[in-house]
Amino acid sequence: MFVRSIRLNSSLLLSAAKKPQPALSKLRLTTLPTTYMQQQKMGQSTSSEQNPSSQFKSYKYEDILKLVNEEPEQGPYLIDVREPKELAELGKIPNALNIPYKTAPGSLDLKPAEFQELYSFEKPDENKELVFYCAAGIRARAAAELAQSFGYKHCSVYPGSFNEWMIRDGPIEK
């Protein structure tokens, strides 16, 4: 679900009355994604099964809890795309691998040796499922889109992300 907003500067409105063309060309439409928790409050669905426009499989809290209790090699990779500072302050979901989206967006495009050197773990296999999460679900979706552009075929998102995980008292690894 996306909310569209129009941001206008009052000086643009005044100049629009005098010179409509240049002022209107400065008009910006901004698309603001709603977070998982906002969608829940509004009673909106976040599931990809109920939202056909969603291109990613959507995981629920219970699904992630099952992944945490499995051996990491058996299931999909759980990828935390928050920044290392966020992990240091709050912890992470157990068995998750940290690949920060904001400071290192091209990480999944690195050669395996470069990736290993940077992160001290093997680069995820392109044919294995990756389940992305962040704090509120926004960076997770962006990271999944980016991973697809790098050739990863099975990308999923946990829209509730770490905020929901903490609210529901999921186990946390420090």
Automatic annotation (TrEMBL):
Output the InterPro entries linked to this UniProt entry: Rhodanese-like_dom (IPR001763), Rhodanese-like_dom_sf (IPR036873)
Q: Which domain of life is it from?
A: Eukaryota
- Can you say what this protein is called? Thiosulfate sulfurtransferase RDL2, mitochondrial
Classification via PROSITE patterns: RHODANESE_3
User: Which Pfam families does the record match to this protein?
Assistant: Rhodanese (PF00581)
| Assigned keywords, A-Z | Transferase
Residues in domain Rhodanese?
A: 72-174
Molecular-function annotations in GO: thiosulfate-cyanide sulfurtransferase activity
Cellular component GO terms, alphabetical:
mitochondrion
